[in-house]
Design brief:
The chain is of the alpha+beta class. The chain has two domains: about 5-165, SH3 type barrels (Roll), CATH 2.30.30; about 185-284, MgtE N-terminal fold (Alpha Horseshoe). It has helices at about 10, 90, 135-140, 145-155, 175-180, 190-200, 205-215, 215-225, 230-235, 240-250, 250-260, 265-275, 275-284, and strands at about 5, 15, 25-35, 35-50, 50-55, 60-65, 70, 75-80, 85, 95-100, 105, 110-115, 120-130, 160-165, 165-170. The strands form three sheets. Strands 2, 3, 4, 5, 6, 7, 8 and 9 form an eight-stranded mixed β-sheet that branches. It is elongated and about 75 Å long.
Length: about 280
């Protein structure tokens, strides 16, 4: 192929051919399995008529922008949703993620893959999340103009993207976070004031997910920087035990001020979970 990269907008709707060159359908989505590999495309979901097929990465012989995807294995299976899959089209495209280096919340408008040939197969590796005008233009003309024309059209526009390893996917469901191997540990290195700005831009369930997961000391420092109107709602959404761990890391007077903004029952539940020393200091 002419370049060793591919965009998700180009992969979506790309034709797929079996070992005999017969067309099976078009790519409908692609998925990572983060517990296995955090950046390699593990599954291609191909639609042919009413049914979708699942193609493993090791069943792909070649991927070409000009010709499509050709397989090396004809033993394909029907698609069944897998809770360990992070589907790019469904779960990432148009969703908010955290840019850890830029310290901000961004919306995914496309993804860039590196195409890695090894002599046996072509493998796609997620390299960047695209957020700029170039990716919006690709989306606008997807299916209207040939991909090569779109590439020429976007050439004068500077790219805006974030390296995949510096992105944090936000997932409120704790069980799904576990299955998708999502961690917020990278966020703990961000200055609390910057992290506070990030969580203020998120939905309530996503804020809760971050405070529930990150280190309690970091959570306390971050909570201190959050808009006071939001502090109480964050604590109220947490399990009392986690809320108590965070409050214990705060200065007693600051902790007392936040607890005074909570419903009396919620405040009492948090105090009950605190150790005796911390509880006494706050109550004083």
């Amino acid at each position: 192929m002419m370049d060793h990269f591919l965009f998700f907008t180009e992969l979506a709707s790309m034709p797929v051919y079996d070992v005999k060159g017969r067309r099976l359908g078009r790519v409908k989505d692609a998925a990572l399995v983060p517990l296995v590999n955090s950046s390699r495309i593990d599954r291609y979901l191909v639609g042919g008529g009413d049914a979708w097929l699942t193609i493993r990465y090791d069943q792909v012989r070649s991927i070409s922008l000009e010709e499509g995807i050709f397989l090396s294995d004809e033993h394909l299976t029907p698609y069944h949703d897998d809770e360990y899959m992070l589907r790019l089209g469904r779960d990432l495209l148009d969703q908010q993620i955290i840019d850890v280096t830029g310290r901000k919340v961004v919306r995914v408008t496309d993804l860039t893959f590196e195409v890695r040939p090894d002599g046996t197969r072509d493998t796609l590796i997620v390299s960047d999340v695209d957020i700029g005008v170039r990716s919006i233009l690709r989306r606008l003309f997807q299916g209207v103009l040939p991909p090569l024309w779109i590439r020429r059209l976007q050439a004068p526009i500077p790219p805006r993207s974030i390296r995949w390893e510096f992105c944090n996917v936000v997932e409120p469901d704790p069980l799904r976070r576990l299955r998708l191997n999502i961690s917020y540990r990278k966020l703990e290195s961000i200055h609390p004031a910057d992290l506070a700005d990030i969580v203020e831009d998120l939905a309530p369930a996503e804020r809760e997910a971050i405070f529930e997961t990150i280190d309690s000391e970091v959570a306390a420092e971050t909570l201190s920087e959050v808009d006071p109107k939001m502090q109480a709602s964050i604590l109220e959404a947490l399990e009392p035990e986690k809320a108590a761990d965070i409050v214990e890391e705060m200065a007693p007077d600051e902790a007392a001020d936040i607890l005074s903004e909570l419903e009396e029952g919620t405040s009492e539940e948090i105090l009950e979970e605190m150790d005796s020393t911390g509880k006494t200091e706050v109550e004083e």
